[in-house]
Amino acid sequence: MKTLLFILLICISAHAVEATGINDQFKELKESSETFKEYKVIKINVLNDFWKSVMDSIKTKESVIAKLQSENSVDKANIDQLKANLEVRDATIEELQYATSHINVLGVEFGKTFYKILNFTIIGILLVFCGILIISLKERRNIAKTKISAFDKLELKFEDYKRAALDKQMKLRRELQTEINKREQKRSI
To answer: What is the value of pTM for the model shown?
Structure first.
């Protein structure tokens, strides 16, 4: 870009020098030419030299213009390529920023902040559920212990009752047997 500006400045200064040169040549041509009534008479070789100088100036300017146009087209191509590279880089940066701020879980895209909140919420719910489950199990264990101890007490009472009932039944049988024996003795007498 700097070279283009430098060449443009050189061309403008060369153009000014050539214009001054052509203007000076034209003034000298007018002054050195002979006047006939209101017309100027110019020698053909002087006119040809002036024309040659004008054509050289035009060719020089055209070559400079062509050179500047080619450099301009090269610079435009470079600018277009740099713009394309910039767009690719910007797209890559956006992709990287998206990749650093999102996470893919089971094919679903989540923002990392949302994913952290979701995970902590799930973990919190699971901890609360585990706490409730542990408390429930302790209560059930306490209930089971009290029922087992109540059952053991009931079983002991039942064993005592069975023993007492068996003793009572045996005692009644003995008494009955004793009564039967007494009756038989009375009958046998």
So the answer is: 0.44
